User: Fold this.
Amino acid sequence: MKQQNVRTAILFLFILLVFYCFGTRMMDYFTIYYSWNLISEADFARFHQYQSVFIISIFVIPAAVMTVLNILVVLFPPRYMSRKLPGLALGVYAFDWIFSFSIQIPIQFKLHNGKDMGLLNELMRTNWWRFTADAIQFVIVCILLWQLLRRLGEFAAARNGSI
Assistant:
């Protein structure tokens, strides 16, 4: 029973972090990046370097933890849950990491040196690929949560003799 409680706690933390990370990603993609257009060229490199520290601690580290939890949920699912939806969520989110490391992070390193509107436009354009992966992952996890809550309601009703 203790093992199931640990697995359920991991699942709960994973779902919680999916909601948190989806919110932070939307802020990052649609607020932070677009506001960089307003920063002067003289201030941009210093501003970008300063802001990067916060982005890493508020977004990147939680996203990495979320991914590790997702892997754990796939490898060690609670007894009452299939691996299918967590596996799909992990597969979709892998695209986010692939786009990040292959396209976005190299652009970010170049932006550390100074403002480049071509790079900013490329960053915002390629964000749509990441947004798509993130939105699909979020929907999959919402479906998973809905299924778990429905199953919990059926269990509670059966236990109380309502069914």
User: Anything to note?
Assistant: DSSP finds four helices and no strands in the chain. The chain has a mean pLDDT of 92. The CA atoms of residues 48 and 157 lie 54 Å apart. Residues 117-159 form the longest helix (43 residues).
